[in-house]
Fold these 2 entries.
Entry 1:
Amino acid sequence: MMIPTPIIVGKTAQIGRDSFARVDLLRRTVHYGPDRNTTCAWCGQPGKVNVNGFNRLFQYGAHSDGLLTQPHFDEHVFCSVQCRRVYYCP
Ligand SMILES: [Zn+2]
């Protein structure tokens, strides 16, 4: 399945930390166009639509401790962290 390119990538926020793995858990907001064709990879919901008609979903990622590493984001987008968790750890 093709993952469409987000039209707007919003802010990245730290939403948690796995201190055992020394990894920060990240979430960034991605906005897709008003066609609502992009849906949560797990539950299929199209995500919340903002005032401009953009479809808002989340992309989750991780950033290991260490100055040289870049955050790594999931290939898929989800409507919530719960959907992401079930998708990767069924
Ligand atoms: Zn979902």
Note: Strands lie at 8-18, 23-32, 48-49, 55-64, 72-73.
Entry 2:
Amino acid sequence: MSTGIGDPDRFGHTLGEPVGQDVTDVINQPGNRIDEGIFMKVIVDWDLCDGNGVCAIEAPTVFEIDDDDELHVLTDEIGDAERAQVDSAVRVCPKRALRLEP
Ligand code: SF4
């Protein structure tokens, strides 16, 4: 564990030596590999959302606005295929009503 200046890890890093913990075993556990699909959940703050539909333009496979201007989340588990669209929707939501959580 790094403790700052004078830490052996820091000196090792400076010299280009391998430092820190080997996390290969952790990364290779089922469910921990990105290529096996790590899902994020999209969370809507319904107190903030006003149904303007900007998110549905950015991520139409995830968000839909009905005829009454009500937002529907079509899937709340966001995989790699939807991630870029939903990231964009989170960024552009004018009410800041969206977030992604692990
Ligand atoms: S962009 Fe934000 S405020 Fe607009 S419908 Fe989507 S979540 Fe609601």
Note: The radius of gyration is 20 Å.
